[in-house]
Amino acid sequence: MTSPLPIVYLHTSGTQGISGSIRFQKLVFLGQKESDLPERYRFIPYKFGPYSYQLERDIESWINSGHIRRSRTRNEVGNYRIDYSLTPDGIQVAKTLLKKDGFNKVFEEANKITSAHGEKRLSNLIKYVYGNYSEYTDESTLDIERIFDESTTSQFAEQDESQVGPFDQIKKISEEEGKVAGIDKDFTRQSLEIGAKFRAILERIGGDSLSIYWRSSSPSFDSFKQVVQNDTAVPEDAPSEMRTRESDEWIHGKCDELLDMVNSDTCLFFRTEAKNGQYTVTWESGNGDSGDEITIHMTENQADYGKLRAALVQYATATALDSDISSVSRLDATDDMISESFRQTAKLAIS
Fold first, then answer.
1. DSSP 8-state code for residue 153
2. Does 219 sit behind a cis peptide bond, omega within 30 degrees of 0 on the bond before it?
């Protein structure tokens, strides 16, 4: 269940919202350490100190539901910063929460944190966190000796591709260019190695679209089906289509209805769409050793790094990496390995 805490923090931050995802993470972290707020999120050492993938997923969920607005602003060194604020629907949710028993205390505690730290320079905020919670700095890529030098503010750029974080194992194996058969469009295709075992293909067609796809151990349809049903961006009535072993005809309908009609033994191909044209996701049965293929496709003018990454985390974790994460829970594996790897993959896809 998505936590309302991101809504609470944004409401107590006032109409200006919260400047930067790094700041958002630190405010929630400090709320868990220095107030009576519940410890809803698990934080790990990361390149900017404590970081929670669960928190990022909750923020993404509120964005997808239309309650949090995300915008991009250039900071003083020319890099983009991601800012967050409440939409009118988000403000209404906050007002509703305030009327519930016990939530007044939650808002009061969050307000203490946002009032004390929300307007600090980012360098000063990170200095405070590093100075008081050094156990969360082990995996940081920041230069600790220079962190307080204001001339190094660019270290804090949200979109700085030089900051690869603790996951630097993404390698470009090959790249090819060519013409798409039958249409006058160019394509660029990159083969990426992510970790020791996982490979993905990024493909850009002209200026129109980009896709990322990978092979998974067959059969994977049951896992794919479960992820689709849990994907908050894909509504139950999403327009979908499929082909089955029983018929050569395409079957069109609503996502939940079509999923109920097939299983791993009968489905050959399935495609559905996320709401508002965010992305299309497909599954196709493989042959022999080729494995099943899962593809996430976005039109270029709607390409959004956060949405692409969130989808990759869900689908690839469930369909391609089971053998790698069997020893621990899927949630912890996503936190510790997958999310940041795909963060870098998504940057390559839409940069």
1. G
2. yes
